Amino acid sequence: MRNTSFRWRADTLLASYAKGSALLAGLLLLLVLGLLVRESWPVLSAEGWRGLQAQGWYPASGQLNLLPMLAATLALGMGALLLALPLGVASAVFVRFYAPVWCVEPTRYMLVLLAGIPSVVFGLWGLTALVPLLAMWQAPGVSLLAATLVLTLMIVPTIAASSEAALAALPKSLLDGGAALGLSQRGIVWGIALPAARTGIFAGVILALMRALGETMAVLMVAGNVVQMPAGLFDPVRALTANIALEMPYATGVHRAALFDTGLLLLGLVIALALWSARMAGKYR
Predict the structure, then answer these.
(1) Are 104 and 94 within 8 A, CB to CB?
(2) DSSP letters spanning 169-208
(3) For the domain that residue 278 is a member of, what is the CATH number?
(4) Measured between alpha carbons, how far is 49 from 148 in angstroms, rounded to an integer?
(5) Which residues of 94-126 are buried (b: 16+ CB within 10 A; e: fewer)?
(6) Residue 190 has pLDDT above 60, yes or no
(7) 3-state SS class at 231
(8) Which residues span the domain enclosing 41?
(9) Nearest 5°: phi and psi at 237?
(10) Are residues 21 and 99 in the same domain?
(11) pLDDT of 146-174, one tens digit each?
């Protein structure tokens, strides 16, 4: 009786703690959203979405078009995801199904180490090693392609780790059933394991995409920071995050409000992505 009572109190305490943590997280999000709306209100009330029809980003003359930077941010995120998704999933499949025993832990350690490298180090590598190589192909080197490749390296560990966790969570009986039916290793992986683990893989993809959209320092160092619509892989571009980091130290007045508007647009993009992912995850389940 005493043990049952203790377990009941522990469960109640844990449930209360989890509920309080969830409420606190939601409150923090609302506070951040409220701050962004308040600080960007001078631009929102005066321009609204008409600011996207301006000729360019010239805060001194009141031209506050964020559309080129939004397009560059989406191009960077989607480009990096398209490259990182097959690499990350393939890494997880290798670790779970094909790697020799002696190779499993070193591979996992390498992925963890890659995930722990600071973004500024990725940016430094891209600026000193990758950009000169691309400049030999087509100047100036700092470009949409350079930033996409750097972001790809940064988000591969996230996709690989989540995919491996999803594959590891599959019941062994499911895979044994495929083997009992005479399926090859490839048939088990492609016909059973990956479809059954798609919810966990999808969650990792969304996390990786959010990191790519929110990355600042590495993108700032290798993207070129030219406010223009991306017309090709070798064009210099500026992302929304880089715009805030570059101009906030000296921005005042309407210019400062426009930078908060940039942050509000980025947060809205992430919230929309989270809502869409929740809907898709429900369909997968």
Answers:
(1) no
(2) TS-HHHHHHHHHTT--HHHHIIIIIHHHTHHHHHHHHHHH
(3) 1.10.3720.10
(4) 28
(5) ebbeebeeeeeeebbeebeeeeeeebeebbebb
(6) yes
(7) coil
(8) 2-46
(9) -140, 170
(10) no
(11) 999 999 999 999 999 999 989 988 888 88
What's the one-letter identity of residue 149?
A: L
Give the CA-trace dihedral at 142, 244, 33, 203, to 10 degrees. 20
One domain for residues 219 and 250: yes
Identify each DSSP E strand in 74-146 by its residue range: none
Task: Give the Cα separation of 110 and 122 in Å (integer).
Answer: 15
Report how far apart, in Å, the C-alpha atoms of 66 and of each of 44, 53, 178, 184 are.
Answer: 13, 9, 52, 52
1-18 pLDDT per residue, tens: 455 665 667 778 888 888
CA distances from 203 to 150, 197, 207 (A): 22, 10, 6
Euclidean distance between CA atoms 248 and 59, whole angstroms: 12
When divided into structural domains, the chain yields a total of 2
42 plus 60 within the same structural domain: no
Strand partners, 63: 58
| Position 245, amino acid | A
Q: What are phi and psi of 191, to 5 degrees?
A: -95, -20
Listed in sequence order, the residues at least 6 apart from 97 whose beta carbon sits closer than 8 Å to its beta carbon are 167, 185, 188, 189, 193
pTM of the prediction?
Answer: 0.87
C-alpha span between 80 and 209 (Å, rounded): 8
Determine the 3-state secondary structure of 224 from DSSP: strand
3-state helix, strand, coil in the chain (%, to 5): 80, 0, 15
Do you know the residue count of the chain?
285
CB 189 within 8 A of CB 97: yes
Looking up tokens 């397009």, which residue turns up? Answer: 71
